[in-house]
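Our consortium's second objective concerns turning raw sequence data into structural hypotheses that experimental partners can test. To show how far this objective has progressed, the report includes one record in full. It was chosen at random from the queue rather than selected for favorable results. The single chain below, 596 residues long, was entered without modification.
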Amino acid sequence: MSRRVCMLLALAGLMFPASLSAADVDAKTALDLFPASTVAYIEVTQPRHVLDTILDHPLTKELEQQPDFARALESPDMQQVREVVKIFEERIGEKWRPAVTKLSGDGVFIGVDLATQGVCVLVRSRDEPLLAKTRDTFIELARQDAADKGNDDPIKEHEYQGVKAYQIEDVYYATLGRWLIITNKARLGQMVIDNALDNSTANLAGEGQFQEAVKNRQGEPTAWAYVDLTVLRATGLAKRALNQKSNNPGVELLAGGILAAVPDAPFVTASVEADAKHIAVSTAIPFDPTKIADSREFYFGPQGAGAAPKLLARKEFIFTLSTYRDFGAMWRRAPDLFDDNVNAKFAEAESGLTTLFSGRSFGDDILGNLQPGLRVVVARQTFGKDDITPAIKLPAVAVVLQLKNPEETARQFKITYQSLVGFLNIAGGQNGLEPLEQDTERIGKITLVSAKYLPPQDAAARQDAAIYFNASPSVAFVGDAFVIGSTRSLALELAKMLEQSGSESEPGVNFEMRINGSTALQALRDNRGQLVAQNMLEKGHGAEEAETEINLLLKIVSAFREMSAKLTTADNVLRFRWEMQLVQPQLFISDSRLRS
């Protein structure tokens, strides 16, 4: 098939044949038309909103003004696409964007059928005459293109139950009233037509498991999807895959429990919400914590009752995370979870860390004395005019853990910290770094052990200091909380927060994190000069071109107010939700503010 015909086919995804129009057919939903053997279903009920959100966002306008975007539009392939679009617009008498809105305005629906192993796309048009006109234009142009090249007619015509269908290679098209049907299997198309005309085939709307999935649906998402996991369970593929030992501890920590829940789940659903204010993606699967293997109890806790501590958030935070994970239990069950290579590394680490902790077993005595749960905070650092100010300003990072036996374990961690500072001084001295000076303080109920680099003797170097002056490594103990911070100020601030609030958990929440877009933007702007210089060095750009690229990066970040993610286990449903809140267009950052 010629390149031009392929482009016509791609453009015509909303524009095809029909011969029957009836009010009763138009009144049916996609669930009435898809057969009950549909194992995957996706719906986008308001495609126009998706199109408007993408094309009208100020960030899209910014990208359109970039030189690389302009060059892409001038490429031969894009020129040909634009030519085809122009021809269609002239023939149908509509610009492409309003035409797409009319042709797909009442929804786009996709189904994957197990019985025929076929895929079917249903598009519900708002304008039946425009659909017919588009159909005629497509057929005319496709046949004209083939004739111009001396090729045979690329379109074959068929008829089923009085409905005319068209075939182009392995793809079939037909329309019933305002419904457009596109499928790669003729039998699947016939089943859809049967349901449209006489309901002779059992449909998806009446399928019991699908109805259960619909009941768990929340809100009015922009797009919603359902996948029947029956086949996956029947074949045992998931069980066999997950019974294989992992070679990646990071993946196990992040998603091991989720993967363990999939083989027993009857289905999974997903939804997307998108508008000018936010974008969100959610997934859900039925969840029975009693069926999760003992080896992954570290992920959800006994009987799935483990709960993450409450998030810690402060004014200048960039990133904050809280999760339930029992690291001691994971370390003990490593032989059941990981392959031989990973377990060999665990054994090597155990040996080295046991030495570091003065002969105490790292798995049993150290991790075993930590309560399940982990919190992480990343915060922007600010420097006063009299402070030692690094040329590159890095965020401060802190980790918060809870101790089972605070009095005994805290002493061991304090000694280990002092040993590490001594080691850093020896290693740093060999590389010309200033030494770290230790200090121990008692502030209320808080014990704070900190270290800071001695200031440079040259006063000028204090305002353009080396990168390691971002750090003043510290540990703090308050109640059963243990804070490890890259800076004294962050460790102390979090310890004070914990002194007031304690270590409360969040029932039903397994994992939660947030990223503050405005603070992340400020942290990048703190280092704008360094970013420009690095761009010039790595890419060979001039100053103006480098500034343009860095400004675009900052504008992209400025479009996001906050990003969050949450994994919950309530009501026997395992839900994961990722959300990005967007800055309103009128607040989108200007070029002048990028430099301020």
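The partners drew two points from this record. Confidence is low (pLDDT under 50) at residues 4-21. The chain is about 40% helix and 25% strand. Both points have been shared with the crystallography group to help prioritize constructs.
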